[in-house]
Amino acid sequence: MNPAENGSKEPEPEESVPTVESDIPEERIAARRLRIAARIEAKKREALGVDPDSKKEVKQELKSEKQVEQSRQRLTKLKSDGTELVTNIQVAADSRESQRRTDEAEARRQRTERLESEAKMSLEKFEDITKKWTMARSRELPQDLWEILNMQQQQCALLIEDKNKLINDLQQELKVSDDRYVKDLKKQAEDIDLMIERMEEQIKNLMKSYREELNQIEKSFELERRELLDSNHNKWEQMMQCRRDKELQFLMMRMKRVEEQEQQLQQLRVQDAEEYNMIKIKLETDVQILEQQLQQMKATYQLNQEKLEYNFQVLKKRDEENTITKSQQKRKITRLQDILNNVRIKHTKQDKQFREENHGLTEDYKRIMEQYKEMQKKMKHFANVDAKKFQEIWLMNEEEVKELVQRALETDRIIHEQQLGLAWEKPHLPFMERSGPIVPEHEKKKLALQLAEEVIRAKGKTDADEEWEAVCAPGTQSDSPPFQEQDTLDTDNTESSADQPLRISVKTIKRLLEILCDETGFLIESKLLKLLSPLEKDEQSLMKLDAIFMALGIENEEDVYKLADFFIKYREQQTVDSKGADEDESPGKRESHAQKETGDGSSHRSSSSDLIHPNDVLQALRRFTKEHFKPRDKSHQQSKLFNLNERDDSKDAAYWEDMVNVIPEAKLKVWDALYNALEKYHHVLTERMKLINETNGMKQQNSELRMLLHQYVNSRVNAELEIPPTQVMQIESSWN
Amino acid sequence: MPDVIANPDKGVFTPGRLPQISEPVMRLNPASDPRKMRRIIAEDPEWSLAIIPLLRELCLQHIVKNFENNPILNELLPSHKAKVLEKLSTKLPLKVTANLISDEGYWNRCCTERWGVCDVACYGDSWKRMFFERHLEKIIELFIPDVTDIKTVLDVVPLCKNYVKKLNISQLLPPVKEPQMNEDDNASDTASDLGHEGPSIDHFDFWTLLDKLTHLEELHLVYGVSGCGMNFEWNLFEFTYRDCQSLAKALKSCKTLKVFRITQSKVDDEKVRLLINSLLDHPFLTVLDLSHNLIGDRGARAIGKLINERKMKSITVYDNKIRAHGAQAIAYALTKNTTLTSLNLRLNQIGDEGGQAIAHALLKNATLTNIHMGSNELTEPTATVLSQVLVQNKTLRNINLSCNRLGLDGGKQIQEGMSYNRTVVEFDVRLTEIGQESEYSISQILQNNQEKARKKLITESGVKK
After folding, report:
1. pLDDT-based confidence at A143, cuts 50/70/90?
2. Which among B105, B221, B98 is positioned nearest to B171, based on CA atoms?
3. Which segments carry the region annotation Disordered (chain A) (predicted)?
């Protein structure tokens, strides 16, 4: 990193070269680019094998270095030559030694060979001689023997001579080698001397040459230094000269320029003076005009100033006021802000609180609702239970009472038949037939459907009035004398029902129902229609009516009558509207008229035929439903809720009273009288019974006494007695 | 006293000897002392005008005088110590001085006084070490078995064992039987008189010595007598088997040894095997020199084994009788070795076979830098392989093939091999009959390589700096 950086920096330090350490990012980027470029350049150069510095080095190789290099080379050569010279001796000695060794080895080999051959030869000779000894022994003749011995002797001598010769040869060789050894020693000593000599010479030479070379190097260095000095001096001189020349030149130029500029200055001065004068005059006139204007302006200014001052005062005042009010407002704002904050806090708090409360309350409400439902359920349950219990108790009591009544009646009958001997007539007792608690009259109303059914069923019957009576007043059947009170009640009932506009003939009802059936088919579901198609016509209309009543909310008989009534009224109203003139008719009249109508069958029929126009049915129905069923709904619901509690027990007492009064007062009086008579009779009877009992007891006592007497009389003691009791007895009896 | 009368005349005119005149003389005869007549005595550096010396001076003088009996040195102040050391006599017994004085100046005086010619550079620039080493060497060299008391050696050992690192023993005397033999004329007389004694004689037993010298690192031995001159006898140069055994034992006991040289001692195969056996598990030995002996192929095999067992750095078996087989053994060792840097086989007879084997080994070896195979009866075939070595091997620096008849063809091959080489700095091809042309070109290449090596060295040293 560093060398590269240095390399990039050093060549041109004066110029503002971008550096990596610079504060400006662009400059740093530029510096890095430069560095990279330099590196690539260096690499290229390296690749080309041209070291950028090598050339310079070659050029700059100084004379001294050259000298040093030369000297060094010379000296190393000298040294190596000298060393070679010295070691040459050793090498020569080595080679001589090795030569000698090889020679000696060769000589030794030859010698041993020779010795071996010699030994062989001598052995052969010796064997010859030994052979001849045996030959000599075989010789008889002394001359021969002598001859042979001589020969042997000669041969032995020859052998010995040979050996001696060999020995001599070897000794000669030894001596030669001894000599050679000495010579070698001498030679080596000489060698060593030579070596030492050479070494000394070498050292001397080296020392000398080193010194020389040192001198030369020093000289060369000095020369170089001088040259350098000279060249530098020359350069210095040259540059000084150059500088001097340049300075002179510059001076000349400067002087020239000064002159020129002075001239120019003069010119400019003159020009400027003229211009100045002109402008001065012009300006002075301007000044005069302006002064005039100034005066004017001053006047206006004065005026304005005063105005402004006044305005200023006023504004100041206002400003003060404003500041006061502003501060007040500000204070107010802050206060309000505080309040607002407080209120907000309070609000949040309260909100929170209320939410919690609300939550709690909803929880409570839910709980209470549940409890309430539970309670209702319980209540219903209990009500049911109570009703049941009531029914049961009622039934039980009724039964008991009925039994009692029966008993009473029975006793009455018995009394009548047995005691009085009169014929007993059974009193009329309607309550005996029915059982269960008394149901109030309105609840006994028939359901609308039942009514419809009845109406439709009764289609075949011709006597509509009878039917009507049977339908409309079931309570007014037959009156019986003992139940006067109830009869009156019933009449009241009929009267109340007669008050209502219910006296509508069955025909009308039927007609109405038919119209309904036809006109309000849309209220019936199509599915139902399909289902109904195979049924009889009566059945069909019945089912249809059921569905229509469901839709219209008509539940019971009364509603049907109401509807009918409403229809009639509607038609009347319409006719009245159409007539317009018949407005004077009072409602009472109308009512009477209606009563009349109900009374008259033919008129009834006619009226029923135009009971209502089928087209108006829908409108009428709508109005009917609007008027009647909305308000009724609620009350109906409520009544449904409380119908159990509302059971009125006003008639119960009468009912039970009826039961109690099954025996009338007159009869009771009869009973009382009878009772008294019977009491008396009973008393007599008891008296009698007592007397009878007394007599019976007397009789028995008597019999017993008789028995005793008899016993006594009959006993033996008697006999022994002076006076036998029997006699006494007899006396007594005789007494009696 | 008779000296006193005789001396005056001598002393008057030789001012250089003046300080040596005994004091009593001067006292008794003031006139005889010319110093009393002079105002300034320029030649005496210690002269001063003060007539009465300082008590300190007197004390120091006393200490110097009685140093043998009461050596006080380390308790003194440094300046006084220097003065005392300057004045101490070199004749003081070693027992006193050996462990007490460590001052080099004193030992310098001792050495120069005793031997005159001294090269302290050979002794690690320590005069004390030099003194003790040379002292011990002298004692051992003059030791005659059965005559000299072994105590003379052993007494010195405790004194000098801390300072002796190298023993260069240039001769070992054989034992003498004749009582008239002295230490002075040992060599000549012993040789002449005991010539017929036979080779059964043993030399100094190193076992008693070596295990006591705990700092010994180098040992040079020559079993022979130097300077026997015309009293030459063969048995002066015997190295007996028992000597060898004791030496082997001693070597084993000396664990600090690094360099071992035994030269000119007629070490043959058996003995070298014995020695190397003892050196096989030596911990530090790195240099072994067995030159000028009688080592043959078996010995060379043992050396090869040693090369592989130990981390040897240098082996010299110059001037022996190693032939082709021995050279092969060494070559085999070279292929496995990674420590050996120098091998000298000069003046053997390894022949072409051995030479080729070693050259092949050099193809694989990457540590050897110096090899000397001069005077080894090598010829062209070896040169062929060597040229290959020159091409491939990058570690060899010095090669010596002098005195081998390589011939012109061999020379050409070597020249060719050298032309690819950039590392060899020295290549001795003198007396090899390779022709002047080859010789010249080889020398040129060598010069180039030398330049290169020099530049490399300079750059390396520059890098280090």
Report:
1. confident
2. B221
3. 1-26, 42-74, 91-114, 472-499, 576-611
User: Which residues in chain B are contacts of A87 at CB distance < 8 A?
Assistant: 428, 430
Q: Report how far residue A507's alpha carbon sits from residue A126's, in angstroms, rounded to the nearest whole number.
A: 199
Write out pLDDT tens, residues A263-296.
999 999 999 999 999 999 999 999 999 999 999 9
Taking the model in full, what pTM does it have? 0.51
A127-141, A595-609, B220-234, B316-330: the lowest-pLDDT one = A595-609
The rounded distance, in Å, linking the Cα atoms of B188 and B194 is 10
Measured distance CA(A690)–CA(A681) in Å, rounded: 14
Three-state SS string over A581-645 comes to CHHHCCHHHHHHHHHHHHHCHHHHHHHHHCCCCHHHHHHHHHHHHHHHHHHHHHHHHHHHHHCCC
Torsions phi, psi for B219 (to 5 deg):
-140, 120
**From CA B185, how far away is CA B201, in angstroms rounded?**
19
Q: Residues B60-92, buried b or exposed e (16+ Cβ, 10 A)? A: beebbeebeeebbbeebeeebbebbbeebeeeb
Residues 6 or more apart from A148 whose CB is under 8 A from it? Answer: A132, A135, A136, A139
CB count, 10 Å around CB of A500? 11
H helix intervals, A21-62 = 25-48, 52-60
How distant is the alpha carbon of residue A122 from its chain centre?
A: 132
Cβ–Cβ under 8 Å, residues B288 and B306? yes
**pLDDT class for A2, splitting at 50, 70, 90?**
very low
**Beta-bridge partner residues of B426:** B398
The answer for residues whose C-beta is within 8 angstroms of residue A490's C-beta and 6 or more apart is A475, A476
Closest CA to B439 of B465, B407, B464: B407
- The closest CB to that of A91, out of B349, B377, B403, belongs to B403
Separation between Cα atoms, residue A2 and residue A20, nearest integer Å: 12
- C-alpha span between B259 and B240 (Å, rounded): 22
Do the beta carbons of residue B29 and residue B12 sit within 8 Å?
no
SS3 at position A192: helix
The whole-number average pLDDT for the span A539-550 is 76
Q: Are B304 and B278 in contact, with CB atoms under 8 Å apart?
A: no
DSSP code of residue A417: I
Chain B: give the shortest CA distance to residue A213, in Å: 19
Cα A360–Cα A361–Cα A366 angle in degrees, nearest 5: 100
CA distance A95 to chain B (A): 5
Q: What ipTM describes this predicted complex?
A: 0.73
Rounded distance, CA B356 to CA B362, Å?
A: 10
User: What is the tens place of the pLDDT at every residue in A354-409?
Assistant: 889 999 989 999 999 999 889 888 888 888 888 888 888 888 888 888 888 888 88
Q: What is the pLDDT of residue A23?
A: 67
Between A506-519 and A557-579, two packed helices, what is the crossing angle to 10 degrees?
80
- The angle at the Cα of B313, spanning B172 to A199, to the nearest 5 degrees, equals 65
Residue A243 Cα, gap to closest chain B Cα (Å): 44
Verify whether the Cβ–Cβ distance A98 to B375 is below 8 Å. yes
pLDDT of residue A483: 38
- Which residues does A570 contact at the CB level (< 8 Å), separation at least 6? A612, A616, A620, A623
List, for residues A325-362, the tens digit of each pLDDT value.
999 999 999 999 999 999 999 999 989 988 899 999 89
* CA distances from residue A213 to A84, A208, A219, A467, B453 in whole angstroms, order as listed: 21, 8, 9, 175, 23
Q: Which residue of A has its CA nearest to B403?
A: A95
Query: Does residue A601 carry a pLDDT above 70?
Result: no
CA distance B427 to B418: 10
Whether residue B268 contacts residue B293, with contact meaning beta carbons closer than 8 Å, is answered with: yes
